[in-house]
């Protein structure tokens, strides 16, 4: 019988492969056990059927068996590979090394490694606002939003004095500062909601609160400051007695912050009438938010000690280049020049340059004291990455929510060709985009802040949500602009789209430009930090100790085992569309968890293959890195959408529709990006064809994005009450109730349009339809005369029509000189 079976060599080979793949996926088999299984399956074909191919394969298995023995593997394989890789591996710079070590990994690592543990995601607690946080949002935040006129800021270029005073007095600059230092001590989630709501009233207002709480020195002081620095600055920052800014970007050093030329030379100088050891600083910073009004400046510079003046017990004694250092400098310090402004596009928030010429500071002004000289880059990477995951991502969430709410409302108010434009498929396509953008952006900021509140410090996730949410912001502003047409093109008080549209490039550019974030940070750092063994391998390769080869060998064995397991998962999951993956989720979400299992397994395989083929040059292949970044970002977004649905929207039909379209679009993006990277790999056509056959036999999901799904999604968000309740968490609630606010004018017109429709239907039922050959007033009087309408109906019709027209109007001016 065996002879009969093994006559069909190809069939037996394929069956053996499938069996081993199933064993790999469904069991926790070890590599030596897998080797024995392969040996047992190959032996009959080689010996009983006497098949040459099986005999050759058996020989290969014997060679592999030798490598399973640690001592033999070390001599024949690990040591030669270690020597080759150590010679060819480019050195890791200090700044790059610190960046790789900064923060922590969490769900990003689960996705990178190909076998996500869903409980890591679903068990994460969704942060709930405390009574104090909710009260602050309902009172102080809503009050502050009502005090601001976004259009007025365009002409005054600043917030009113009473607004600044309210910000300072009510503690908006101390949201993250603990209560022991007179701050609010709010959660990251509350911090995000507050900044989002303020941004919905005015981008300037949001920036005024976000910078001190994320980009200012407060976070650095909390983690690294001396006790004296904390006691002096934190209470003053919390109460607005000090206004902070942080100077990092310079004319020379932008995205490449490690190339700073701003410098501080260790020297002696006069301070408070005494000769003390300190630093003489020279710098030229630009794009520094809040700089024109700041009273204390956090400054990043490179420190040097050419005369070896540091004490002998200092860790950097007798070193010239001490590294990037951070210090706090009061505004009135001699040699400091500050106060001029840049003029950003969009709302002209406070932003400007800072210059320093021979500024002497004592060592006490270095954050953390003189022992923290040279630790500035680590400070920035570990602390500012937290802010990157909050400030701009929640600004994106706020903007996408506002664009969805206003565009849905406007499209139901505006009529063309006798129907609301919301019923036109071209508009419905845009509404579906706005719906998924708002859902995704909200999910992203929620998951990232919940993770921060749980104690995670995921720097890669912070980069993902900054990149994605600001892109969603820009996308939504463009779609909203398209739907509103001329209503959004004409500047003025009524225009609630133009500021979001023009301000989008600011969000995309600052805190790590999106090109850099996508091409280098997300995948470049993510691959090393989130990979199961790559960081351990790199450490071993750069380590000069005797046991470095042993540690390299240990990491390499785990790496190979993980790679084999991921190949098995990727092939079986791709060919079964995830049906062989571990089942998870309910009747709505289980298919999406399967889809994500497929994507994660394929991603882990392809990134390992790309690393093997391209080696150290992979980080210079920015287009390949960018597409991998798109894939992992899309997978993270799928995760965040699932988490948001399960926490807030279970069994909500509107949310189900939006969730489906969101995830299908993200699956398509992730899969397409990986497929394109196969075409960019330096391998021949046959190898590319084989990879496509194994990992991309057909689409990840059987569901398709069709016109019906897009239309249903657009219809789901015509329910503005549902949007306000569920997808307006980052919008200030009272804006539409504020007299003369553009939201107020729009919603009055919208509500009037619904009432007006009742009167129109009444006239239509009687066989009458208004024609503009006569005035509306005259036509309505005719309907009153023939008893179709009452006098009250006529007056209501005219009043409601005026409100609708008011909502559609744009501003005009007698003169544009002012």
Q: Can you put this structure into words, describing what you see?
A:
It is a single chain. This protein has 818 residues and is an alpha+beta fold. It contains 33 helices and nine strands. Strands 1, 2, 3, 4, 5, 6 and 7 form a seven-stranded mixed β-sheet that branches. The protein has a two-stranded antiparallel sheet with strand order 8-9. A hairpin with a 2-residue loop joins strand 8 and strand 9 (419-420). The termini are far apart. Residues 1-8 have low confidence and may be disordered.
Quick tags:
single chain, 818 residues, alpha+beta, seven-stranded mixed beta sheet, two-stranded antiparallel sheet, 9 strands
Number of helices: 33
- The low-confidence runs, each spanning 5 or more residues with pLDDT under 50, are 1-8
Q: What is the alpha-carbon Rg in Å? A: 31 Å
* Straight-line distance between termini: 96 Å
Beta-strand fraction estimate: 5-15%
Morphology call: flat
Number of strands: 9
What's the short story on this structure?
This protein is an alpha+beta fold and 818 residues long.
Break the fold down into its secondary structure elements and pairings.
Blueprint: H1 2-7, H2 9-26, H3 31-48, H4 52-68, H5 70-88, H6 94-101, H7 107-112, H8 118-122, H9 131-146, H10 150-156, H11 161-169, H12 188-201, H13 203-215, H14 218-224, H15 227-238, E1 244-247, E2 263-271, E3 274-289, E4 296-304, E5 321-330, E6 336-338, E7 351-362, H16 376-388, H17 391-413, E8 415-416, E9 419-420, H18 425-453, H19 459-484, H20 486-489, H21 498-509, H22 514-530, H23 534-541, H24 548-576, H25 590-614, H26 622-648, H27 653-680, H28 685-695, H29 707-716, H30 720-726, H31 742-765, H32 776-785, H33 791-808
Parallel strand pairs: 1-4, 2-4
Antiparallel strand pairs: 2-3, 3-7, 4-5, 6-7, 8-9
């Amino acid at each position: 019988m065996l002879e009969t079976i093994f006559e069909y060599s190809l069939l037996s080979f394929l069956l053996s492969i499938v069996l081993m793949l199933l064993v790999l996926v469904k069991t926790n088999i070890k590599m030596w056990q897998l080797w024995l299984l392969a040996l047992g399956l190959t032996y009959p074909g080689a010996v009983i059927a006497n098949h040459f191919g099986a005999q050759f394969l058996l020989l290969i298995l014997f060679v592999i068996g030798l490598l399973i023995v640690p001592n033999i593997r070390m001599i024949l394989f690990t040591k030669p590979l270690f020597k080759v890789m150590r010679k060819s591996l480019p050195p890791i710079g200090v700044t790059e090394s610190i960046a790789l070590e900064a923060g922590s990994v969490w769900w990003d690592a689960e996705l990178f490694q190909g076998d996500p543990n869903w409980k890591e995601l679903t068990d994460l607690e969704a942060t709930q606002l405390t009574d104090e946080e909710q009260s602050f949002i309902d009172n102080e935040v809503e009050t502050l939003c009502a005090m601001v006129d976004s259009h007025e800021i365009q002409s005054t270029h600043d917030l009113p004095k009473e607004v600044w005073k309210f910000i300072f007095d009510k503690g908006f600059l101390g949201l993250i500062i603990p209560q022991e230092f007179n701050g609010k001590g709010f959660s990251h989630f509350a911090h995000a909601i507050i900044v989002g709501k303020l941004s919905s009233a005015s981008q300037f207002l949001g920036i005024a609160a976000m910078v001190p709480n994320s980009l200012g020195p407060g976070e650095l002081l909390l983690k690294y400051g001396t006790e004296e620095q904390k006691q002096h600055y934190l209470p003053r920052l919390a109460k607005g007695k000090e206004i902070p800014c942080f100077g990092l970007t310079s004319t020379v050093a932008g995205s490449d912050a490690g190339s700073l030329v701003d410098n501080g030379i260790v020297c002696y100088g006069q301070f408070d009438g005494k000769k003390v050891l300190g630093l003489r600083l020279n710098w030229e910073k630009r794009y520094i938010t809040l700089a024109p009004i700041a009273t204390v400046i956090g400054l990043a510079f490179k420190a040097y000690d050419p005369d070896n003046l540091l004490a002998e017990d200092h860790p950097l004694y007798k070193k010239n280049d001490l590294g990037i250092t951070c210090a706090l400098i009061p505004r009135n310090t001699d040699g400091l020049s500050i106060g001029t402004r840049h003029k950003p596009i969009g709302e002209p928030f406070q932003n400007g340059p800072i210059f320093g010429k021979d500024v002497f500071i004592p060592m006490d002004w270095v954050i953390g004291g003189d022992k923290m000289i040279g630790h500035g880059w680590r400070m920035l990477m570990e602390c500012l990455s937290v802010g990157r995951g909050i400030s701009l991502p929640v600004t994106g969430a706020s903007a996408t929510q506002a664009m969805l709410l206003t565009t849905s409302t406007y499209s139901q108010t505006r009529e063309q060709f006798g129907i609301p434009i919301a019923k036109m498929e071209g508009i419905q396509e845009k509404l579906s985009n706005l719906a998924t953008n708002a859902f995704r952006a909200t999910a992203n900021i929620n998951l990232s802040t919940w993770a921060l509140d749980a104690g995670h410090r995921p720097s890669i996730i912070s980069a993902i949500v900054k990149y994605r949410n600001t892109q969603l912001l820009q996308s939504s502003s463009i779609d909203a602009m398209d739907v509103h047409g001329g209503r959004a093109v004409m500047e003025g008080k009524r225009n609630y789209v133009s500021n979001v549209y023009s301000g989008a490039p600011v969000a995309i550019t600052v805190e790590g430009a999106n090109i850099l974030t996508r091409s280098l940070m997300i995948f470049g750092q993510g691959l090393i930090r989130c990979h199961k063994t790559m960081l351990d391998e790199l450490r071993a390769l750069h380590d000069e100790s005797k046991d470095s080869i042993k540690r390299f060998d240990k990491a390499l064995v785990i790496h190979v085992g993980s790679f084999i397991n991921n190949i098995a998962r990727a092939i079986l999951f791709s060919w079964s569309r995830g049906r062989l993956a571990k089942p998870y989720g309910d009747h709505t979400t289980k298919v999406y968890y399967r889809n994500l299992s497929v994507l994660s397994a394929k991603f882990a395989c392809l990134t390992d293959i790309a690393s093997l083929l391209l080696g150290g040059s992979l980080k210079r292949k920015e287009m390949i890195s960018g597409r991998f970044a798109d894939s992992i970002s899309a997978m993270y977004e799928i995760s965040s959408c699932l988490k948001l649905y399960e926490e807030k929207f279970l069994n909500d039909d509107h949310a189900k529709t939006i969730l489906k379209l969101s995830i299908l679009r993200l699956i398509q993006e992730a899969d397409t990006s990986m497929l394109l990277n196969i075409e960019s790999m330096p391998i021949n056509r046959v190898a590319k064809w084989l990879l496509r056959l194994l990992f991309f036999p057909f689409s990840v999901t059987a569901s398709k994005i069709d016109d019906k799904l897009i239309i249903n999604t657009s219809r789901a968000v015509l329910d503005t009450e549902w949007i306000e309740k569920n997808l307006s968490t980052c919008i200030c609630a009272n804006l539409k109730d504020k007299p003369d606010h553009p939201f107020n004018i729009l919603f009055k017109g919208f509500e009037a349009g619904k009432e007006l429709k009742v009167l129109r239907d009444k006239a239509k039922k009687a066989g009458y339809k208004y024609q503009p050959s006569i005035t509306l007033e005259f036509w309505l009087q005719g309907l009153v005369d023939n008893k179709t309408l009452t006098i009250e109906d006529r007056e209501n019709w005219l009043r409601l029509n005026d409100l609708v027209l008011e909502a559609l109007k744009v501003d005009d001016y007698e003169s544009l000189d002012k």
